[in-house]
Amino acid sequence: MADGLLRLGLHDLHVALGGRMVPFAGYEMPVQYPAGVMKEHLHCRAAAGLFDVSHMGQVILRPRSGPSGDMAALVTGFEALMPVDVAGLARGRQRYGLFTNATGGILDDLMFANRGDHLFVVVNAACKAADIAHMQAHLSAVAEVIPVTDRALLALQGPLAERALARLVPQVTAMRFMDVGVFGDVWVSRSGYTGEDGFEISLPQAQAEGFARQLLAMAEVLPIGLGARDSLRLEAGLCLYGHDIDTTTSPVEAGLGWAIQKSRREGPRAGGFPGAERILGELRDGPARLRVGLRPAGRAPMRDGTALYDGDAQVGVICSGGFGPSVDGPIAMAYVPRALAAPGTALTGEVRGKRLPVSVAPLPFHPTSYKR
Amino acid sequence: MKFTKEHEWLRVEGDLLVVGITEHAAEALGDVVFIELPELETQVAAGDEVCVIESVKAASDILAPVDGEIVAVNDRLAENPGLVNEDPLGYWFFKMKVEDLGVIDQFMDEDEYKELIG
């Protein structure tokens, strides 16, 4: 395959399963298996799908010993990088976070978990080197930043994920959405990126193939590639870093204000994160533009890069777009001026030189089914 | 039946050239969700983009294999694009009137095409 691409620990398994391997974020990744994107997507919504997300970055933040080396100092340091309440996260719980920059843009989105005496962080593959450098630059006085490179990360998603995973890790039945647990060598969170109930499972590379094969042997479970991962997350209205959020989009514009807890908006721990002026200002006054869902009126998908018009004026560009198998129609997301962000607003999108009708739609396109 | 290096199949039906896509193309595209067919009575030149095929993953085109006029399009495909994945050789996209059906001889036969796709 192409030069310089990294291989996943489970590469041979993907090939044996008939995965079509493509370059993604510096890795050779399965974009689909023989079932195809449509069947994989629908299977995940109906039963359970297994994803290899080992390309993502797993990082442990461990407080340094010594006078300033405690969890409290790490928590304070981590809160200085994100507009997110870290201190209020209970042990055994996970939360969505965002690294912001000085102008209020997003450096990456991530998940972080309180595991008692340390934090466990999962970041995007394409950003992981920069994220690790960022954490080392800002946290090294209070924490060791330890990239976890000897573990695979699997996601098992869908309404039957609990039933399937419980055969191997019975404790998962007691978990609810965003709980994390350490069961021997296996680290589990009840979360994912499909809008379905499900789990992410970190385990030693040496055990990963056996574990994956046991899951795949179950009637409920099919392997799912990147193609369906993308259509599932788009239907769930979830952002893909580099498409829907980046260093120019603020969390408020992105509709991620829910990730900024009250404690970072007002009171003694308000602000104090990069870009606070813009982000708190947008929370107060409303942002100039907003990420919205879009439903093209016809059957033609409107993809990433499609220009959007209100009358003759271009008002935005689609950041993610494609076909939603569960919605059974084209779906997209874009940033539009706030005045045009209300569901039902009629716009047009230019597809192959033709302006086709599209309307603003509520997100998510497909209801989520997290086990809260 | 003849084949183009753009993975179209061609066959002659009376005085018309009939065009579809190969199994190899359908498999590479993945699940087809939208097909835009050309307007009837359009004059096209070889290499013109005449159809759009959108799969779940991406958009791609069908090119006119030769110069000619589009005289029929398969509306069943526009209504039910997934048929292409079920039976690519069974569903034609469009029919062309061409000056000389002998132009088809320049394209690959089945053995040559199989060699191309390995």
Explain how this protein is built.
The complex is a heterodimer of chains A (about 375) and B (about 120). Helix content of chain A is about 20%, strand content about 35%. The longest helix of chain A is centred in the middle third of the chain and has 12 residues, at about 130-140. A 6-stranded mixed β-sheet of chain A has the order 11-12-13-10-4-14. Chain A has a 6-stranded antiparallel beta barrel with strand order 15-18-17-16-19-20. Chain A has helices spanning about 10-15, 35-45, 70-80, 130-140, 160-165, 205-215, 225-235, 275-285, and strands at about 5, 20-25, 25-30, 50, 55-65, 95-100, 105-115, 120-125, 145-150, 150-155, 180-185, 185-190, 200-205, 220-225, 290-295, 305-310, 315-325, 330-335, 345-350, 355-360. In chain A, helix 2 (about 35-45) packs across helix 7. Chain B has a single domain, classed as OB fold (Dihydrolipoamide Acetyltransferase, E2P) (Beta Barrel). Chain B has helices at about 25-30, 75-80, 85, 110-115, and strands at about 1-5, 10-15, 15-20, 30-35, 45, 50-55, 60-65, 70-75, 95. In chain B, strands 1-2-3-9-8-5 form a 6-stranded antiparallel β-sheet. Chain B has a 3-stranded antiparallel β-sheet with strand order 4-6-7. The model of chain B has no long low-confidence stretch (mean pLDDT about 95). The chains are: A alpha+beta (about 375), B alpha+beta (about 120). The interface of A and B includes residues 36, 39, 41, 322 and 330 of A.
